Amino acid sequence: MITDPIADYLTRIRNAVTSKHRMVEVPASNLRKNITKILFEKGYILNYKFEDEGFQGTIKIALKYHPVTKLSAITELKRVSRPGLRQYVNSNQLPRVLNGLGIAVLSTSKGVITDKEARKLGVGGEVICYVS
């Protein structure tokens, strides 16, 4: 049993990037699917595919690397809010990752969105992770 499925998701991606894998496969959930969509929209991953096989389904993620230098688009994935210590922020306390170059993923009443979208909507919520 996994006590923190989002930390497991981020760790699988982090380990795949460290090992220079092209693909990583993670168990699916609605929150993980939403985070994957955000990573794709912001250009941190190359592509993704949801497969509804078995009990839970899986997410296949194609990682993105620079063609010449072979450096990953994802340099850091950091879990912020965790089951033992939830981190909530107001709309005026939204974090800035790398002074705006990275993103913070938040779970809000408007759904799972980035910190920039939360600023535009004027909402706060639970800070899930930082991506840079």
What does this structure look like?
- This protein is an alpha+beta fold.
- It has helices at residues 5-18, 30-41, 115-121, and strands at 23-27, 45-51, 58-63, 77-79, 88-89, 103-108, 111-114, 125-131.
- It is globular and about 40 Å long.
Rg for CA atoms: 15 Å
**How many separate helices?**
3
The low-confidence runs, each spanning 5 or more residues with pLDDT under 50, are none
Look at the helices and sheets and give the structural class.
alpha+beta
Number of strands: 8
Which strand-content bin applies to the residues? 25-35%
Helix content: 25-40%
Order of helices and strands: HEHEEEEEEHE
Shape: globular
Q: Please give the alpha-carbon distance between the first and last residues.
A: 29 Å
Mean pLDDT: 96
Q: What summary fits the major beta sheet? A: 5 strands, antiparallel
SSE map:
Elements: H1 5-18, E1 23-27, H2 30-41, E2 45-51, E3 58-63, E4 77-79, E5 88-89, E6 103-108, E7 111-114, H3 115-121, E8 125-131
Antiparallel strand pairs: 1-3, 2-3, 4-8, 5-8, 6-7, 6-8
Question: Which features characterize this protein?
Answer:
five-stranded antiparallel beta sheet, 3 helices, single chain, three-stranded antiparallel beta sheet, alpha+beta
Question: Could you give a short description of this structure?
Answer:
With 132 residues, the protein is α+β, with helices and mostly antiparallel strands. The chain has helices at 5-18, 30-41, 115-121; strands at residues 23-27, 45-51, 58-63, 77-79, 88-89, 103-108, 111-114, 125-131. Strands 4, 5, 6, 7 and 8 form a five-stranded antiparallel β-sheet that branches. It has a three-stranded antiparallel β-sheet with strand order 1-3-2, with helices on one face.
